[in-house]
Amino acid sequence: MAATLTSPATRRVPRQERSRRRVEDLLDAAARLVVERGVEALTTRDIAEAAGVPVAGLYQYFADKEDLLLALAQRDMDEMDTQVAADLATLETLSMWTLVRTTMSAYVEVYRRRPAFVEIYLRGRTNVAVHRFGREHNARTATMLRDFAVEAGIAQPDLRPDVALLAVEVGDRVFQLAYEHDRSGNRKIVEEGMVLVAAYLERYATPEGLQGIRR
Question: Which CATH number do you get for residue 209?
Fold first, then answer.
């Protein structure tokens, strides 16, 4: 169920361990500074200094600050996809409700571990590239979850892709609202969002998807 974004053509993919470690150091430094200062105040010079890397070294791997932030967002989104897949794999009872609850709870867990992601992804939508990044990932997530639900027998085969996408987009908006004023998130908003998304998708559930399938 994991999904990844294609790396921008401007970014050099490191092959040696030393180079990979340098890229991780730059991403970790950017994450720390985003939490401390916010996205808008961040500069490539600040990131390079915090990582102990010359500014010229940063530009070996990233075209600009935006490119680096998208790489950081992608790293965290990959972790989120992995978390969703792992949590769904351990479910004892699968239903439309547990699918929604487990997926959204996995997101909450990664937001807790990755506060910089909250700043970049949930609060940085005014950035065109970040906005596009989110919409593309939402589309892939909708396709993966729809296919998973249909193959598991909890969703009707005629569940339309646009219905699945709408559910994911609504869930995405729930998270934006929940984390708008609190980096740790408003759990009540998230829980209400789970009920909202699940109720919508249950209209397309099979009888097993409503009652639950023991695994």
Answer: 1.10.357.10
